[in-house]
Amino acid sequence: MAEVITKEKSGGKQNKKPIKIDMTPMVDLNFLLLMFFMFTSSFSKPNVMDLGLPAKRTDAPVGQIGDQNQITFIIGENNRIFYHQSNEKDLTEAGLKETDYNGLNVSKIISKAYEKAPKKENFTIIVKPTDDANYKNFVDMMDNISISKKERYGISDIKPWEKKVYENVIK
């Protein structure tokens, strides 16, 4: 603790009393307080989106969804989003339609495509972000898929034939 060292009075002079303070207990106290606050505080949890990835199935043929059993959304630059239900041969600039990120619009588009699907159990939503897309738009699209309550979706790179049509549309 604190220690006071005094000298005997010599004569009539008043001597200064030097004070020596032992800081060891203060350091210990600071360490204990630091540890207390570290262990009792709650750290912020990262905000992550849980992607429910499907289990690997061996009974379903791969790549045979069909044009009418899927809808493809292309996330573009400047908060633009396009969609189509075409294959490489049939996709034109007129077939690549634009919408916005309003949940009602995207849900309606998904619902209409689902109603027209010949095999509703194979209906799949495909999301293809371009290099110019931003993360917020991707998250908004995933939220819209969640709102539409469709569990079959995939995330893929944009194909070269889609990119060609997309670039012609945004010019």
From TrEMBL:
<feature type="transmembrane region" description="Helical">
    <location>
        <begin position="21"/>
        <end position="39"/>
    </location>
</feature>
<dbReference type="GO" id="GO:0005886">
    <property type="term" value="C:plasma membrane"/>
</dbReference>
<dbReference type="Pfam" id="PF02472">
    <property type="entry name" value="ExbD"/>
</dbReference>
<keyword id="KW-1003">Cell membrane</keyword>
<keyword id="KW-0653">Protein transport</keyword>
<dbReference type="GO" id="GO:0022857">
    <property type="term" value="F:transmembrane transporter activity"/>
</dbReference>
<keyword id="KW-0812">Transmembrane</keyword>
<keyword id="KW-1133">Transmembrane helix</keyword>
<dbReference type="GO" id="GO:0015031">
    <property type="term" value="P:protein transport"/>
</dbReference>
<protein>
    <submittedName>
        <fullName>Outer membrane transport energization protein ExbD</fullName>
    </submittedName>
</protein>
<keyword id="KW-0472">Membrane</keyword>
<keyword id="KW-0813">Transport</keyword>
<dbReference type="InterPro" id="IPR003400">
    <property type="entry name" value="ExbD"/>
</dbReference>
<comment type="similarity">
    <text>Belongs to the ExbD/TolR family.</text>
</comment>
